[in-house]
């Protein structure tokens, strides 16, 4: 006869294996395996595993599934170092954990409605989480479930109405219906209704009328296939330019009216090179040329040339790749460029992953979309194919033809219905040209469909409020203590900064913050036994993270300077350590402790991390990433060791190093 503990352990391992299977299926649904049909069943093992699990256990199972799914998905990030890959994987896995834990917590409250509640909780939570992880300064919309449908089919057509988040939500609903069938071993009314919704949506997408006829223009994409490591080498500039001119002439011979170069294709600053503009226009023979080129600032930009070499407009990349574009300033406008051949909306590289930014261009009047990118850094990994999938979804969402010009591939010409009419393989040079529709009415997604995802997030919060209210009923005193833990030290901090002047590290503010944190939460700042672990582990973790960031910068050719420029370590470090101790006493001491009393460790971790990020809103995204990762790590250490004071040294020294990164932006 098995012991109860053995039964429990066996059950945990079965659930863990199910979570691992979910992660594997999700990874296989994306390129390079690209088995998109798996998206309709990939979540089933995880949903079955967390069906009756407590939120904490569901969170852990989601973390495991996410680590396997996204660890495989972004395996190509190992090109920039194993630590960078590990941290990106962890960050994405935490969102999967948030989905599993959030869905479980909501289901626990609405269980009186029966297990059918899962059928609306799962898609609602999935859309809310995917949207939340895609917006803001550290948004990373890689691996959205809807992207798996980029190869075509009725689900892809739905993106014209509900966007990539809605397609993912529909797939999540299908998964929930299948999971319900697996658990009940019979059809239920809610699962039949869910299946009817999924099937009906797909039928409607298939039966959607064709878009009215638009103006048709011949558009070309140039793929020069230049090694990105030599693009900025002056010794190769003439050869690169000669190749571009030759390909421009070939595109014009094919009848191209719009010719699109890849990102940073022109090694010289085209805006200040009239001779080079004349040479390009001569080869283009009246066609519009959309050229990736450095702009003053410096900025990673695009210059649009008219038929007589006159610049018709320019665009500077607004969302920069973390760590990869140090020293580059972001642009400030995403207004499309008006040309005789149509109004062109522009997105550079990473920006094509952000549906909201591209949608805004279509809403502003863009009649055709040009995506300029350089995926050469990713070699022959799955990275370029995963990136290219976003372009297909952007075409369908906006109802606009997309021309994707990639330095080393994959370049594509895409119709508004998502059909790829021409494609230049990875690692080859060539010119694509085809007739594509330009203009036409905006899609439902552009008009109102984009609201679905933020409304899902708002609906999830609204559904969670009764659950939170029930959980916190009778804890009014604890809630008031939490409010005081947030407000009193925060006020002291702001007052101290005013009294201490404009210095970035005012000793007065740190002192007042530390005292205020101790007053509102005595006994929550220091644990004499815990500090033996919190101090060395936080210092070690900070050192590893800094080393990972330095390695990532080095992979892109930038040097991250560590330490004071004059070598005076003690005067440089002490003010930072003092500030770090005060900040950790407040965030991981007072706030975490008081939030724990109200809603347990999830609320403590979320509130202390979120407030820390809020304090650094507007900083470069690399620094925001730093605060996110360290806040999560320090929060987990606080939970284990019960100590916050020992985290201060790591916070201060790490912040001192990271502050120097602001100059790279």
Features:
665 residues, alpha/beta, 12 strands
Q: How large is the radius of gyration?
A: 27 Å
Count of separate structural domains: 3
- Could you name the CATH homologous superfamily of the largest domain? Carbon-nitrogen hydrolase
Name of the top-level CATH class of the largest domain? Alpha Beta
Helix content: 40-55%
Level-2 CATH architecture of the largest domain: 4-Layer Sandwich
CATH fold-level name of the largest domain: Nitrilase/N-carbamoyl-D-aminoacid amidohydrolase
Q: What is the 3D shape? A: globular
- How much β-strand is present in the residues? 5-15%
Low-confidence stretches: none
Average of pLDDT: 89
Please report the total strand number as a whole number: 12
Notes on the structure:
With 665 residues, this protein is an alpha/beta fold. The chain has 20 helices and twelve strands. The protein folds into three domains: 12-207; 215-440, Nitrilase/N-carbamoyl-D-aminoacid amidohydrolase (4-Layer Sandwich); 474-664, no CATH class. 55% of the residues lie in helices and 11% in strands. The chain has a six-stranded mixed β-sheet with strand order 5-4-3-2-1-12. A six-stranded mixed β-sheet has the order 6-7-8-9-10-11, covered by helices on one side. Helix 1 (4-29) packs parallel to helix 3, helix 18 (569-614) packs across helix 19 (621-641) and helix 18 (569-614) crosses helix 20 (648-659). The radius of gyration is 27 Å and the shape is globular. The termini are far apart. The model has no long low-confidence stretch (mean pLDDT 89).
